[in-house]
Structure formats: structure tokens, C-alpha cells
Design a protein that fits this description.
about 45% helix, Rossmann fold, seven-stranded parallel beta sheet, alpha/beta, 13 strands, about 400 residues, 15 helices, globular
Amino acid sequence: MKALFLRTDFYGSINVGGSFSHVKGFLDGLQQLGHEFAAIASGNLSVSGGTVYTIPYSSLFRNLPEVLSIAYNFTLLREARKIIRKEKPDFIYHRHSEFNYSSAMLADEFAIPLVLECNGSEVWVKKNWGRIYLEKILQMAENVQFNRADIITVVSNVMKEDLARLGIDKKKIIVNPNGVDPAAFSPRIDGVEITERYKLGGKIVAGFVGTFGAWHGVEVLARSIKPTVQKNPHVHFLIIGDGVLRGDVERIIREDKVENFATLTGAIPHATIPRYLAACDILLSPHVQNSDGTLFFGSPTKLFEYMGMGKPVIASGVGQIGEVIHDGVNGMLIEHKNHMDLAEKILLLAENPKLRKSLGDAARQDAVERFSWQKNAERVITAVEPLVQR
């Protein structure tokens, strides 16, 4: 089969983060299963194996983001019609984005199935993590997409229940967790260069990678450094990434006077992340619930990448994370927002290399057998195949 993949959100020059890992992973997974794709994106899309068509937003987007998001539908529809006639896809796979209802119209016009990848209600996201002026239009666009989609993929059971409360038929919602490329994230990766660059030799390295979002728990991570190194000064924290909460992390580290026990690398290209993770002995995922008190609905790509590395993972058991990580089996779980619990678990693993290995080995096995991107793509193909007209 052939998919037309749509990424219609405005992301400018950004090309790192979990969403980019997801796009590349899913499209690689499709090809590993013997399927083809063509892709349409609003910016650069670093994927291989299929033709990528770039349909950019107006250069004035940042001045009038909501208005120009609506206008983008018309530009995209005009160009996408030509692409569909040329590529002749069997189905459309659209990564849901704000104000965009183009794939619903295209699916109707060309009578092909629509798979909508929904990583959250854009109405909820804008209300809680941004600002919104044209709420009624945003809600209308989202309703059009949800109602027309033949299949809606979500990354977690929490999100499935959230959409069901909006009135969406559960029968067309499939839970499809994020994944990992087990070849790219592997225990065979060499981290010596990173160890030498940051002078990590002889230390137990506790690593984190992320975009410092509100849900990543980076403040919990920062507060765990002091009680950890007070008891074991051989532990060093390698904090990989950047984002809005970086200043808060740096402030906590400075106030706790633990600057010598933490290295902040800043943002790095996704392709180099495995080498950084390979330099770590323990990997951390202290996610927190949503800021409005609702349940965490995500499926952190980094969690599966950690597991692929064959490293022991310490994570908070919020949402799907508590379903993936089984305490004492393929990782360790901590209490929500409890930095002292995180410190205690780091200390336990720092002093127990056999436990680190057993947890890491089990995590790697789960990553390969259950959470590869090929498995992610397979779940989509299994769902859409009966709908495709041969």
C-alpha cells in the first residue's frame, strides 16, 4: 500500500524533538513492512525512501498565526490535489494539527480512507499551554477531522478515554504507543567520545534527554541532584536538551550549589542522542501530570529510546509510563513529583551494577519485541487495510 503522510503544523526551522522522531520512525516502519509513502509537510522533513513535498506557511505566520493557519487549508488543498493525482495513495495519514481540516476534505473528494494521528485535542492544548482567540473555529475544524476520520490513532489509553468523552466512537480509536528504532538505539552504541568530551570517566552517569516541557519533570530532576550527590559524590547528571524550563533547572542547580555535579549540554541533533545515552549508566524520565490536574496522556519517545539502549530506566508511573515500566522488572518507578524518591532510586542503582544490567536487559527486550517503530506502523496497517479499496 501507499500512504500520503501529512504534517501540517507550523514548526519553522525546528527539526529536533519527539515529534520528529515519531514521523521518521513511523515512515521507516512503513517501509520495513514493504509499504510506500509520499509526504507533505509545512517545512523540512528529514526522512528517506519517499517523495517529500514542502508546502510552506505564509512568511507572516508569526504575526497572525490563527488567521494564517486557517488560510493554510486553502493553500494545502490546492497543492495536495495535484500531489494525490500524481502519487495515487491508498490512504491518507494525517498528524492532527490546529485549525487544519484539509485531510477530511481530501479524503471525501478522492474517496480514500483517513487515518488521523491525534496527540491530543488542539483545543485543550491551546487553552492549557498557549492562548486562543478563534476558539469556535478551532473547535469546528477539530470536529470535522474527528468526525470524518475512519481511524484515529492515539498514543495512550488515557487519550483514548479523553476522546471518547468528546463523543468519538471508541471503535475507531486505536491505541498506538510511540516507539524506537532498535538498531539506532542499541547497547552496541559507543559512548566513549561523549564520556571523554564531558570528563565523565569514573563516574556513575544519570542521564536525561528532553525539550524541557512542563510535563517532563525537569524541576523534579534538578531537585534530586543535591540529595543524590550528598550521599554519593561519584554520581554525575548529564542533562541533554533545552527548552522553556531550562532557566528554572539552572536556578535550582545554582541555589543547591551542585554545579560541579551536573552538565547541561543544550539541544543536540537527534542522530547524536544514542551516543550521549550510551555514555550514561542510568536514564531518567520523571514526568509529571498535566498542569490543569488532568492525567498525563503522552507516550514519551525518550522512554522507548532509553529502553532500546538497554539501560535501566527510572520513571514516574504517570499515564502510559506506568503501563510500560514494571517496577523492578524492566525499570524502576518513583512517586509523582517526589525528588527524594528519585534520588533514592538513583543511589540504589548507582551501587548495584547487577541490578542495572538486569533491568536494562529486560527493557531492551521489551523495546525490540513490543515497541519498535515497525510495530507502530504495523498496528496502523492492520487497522486501515480492510478499508482500502483494491
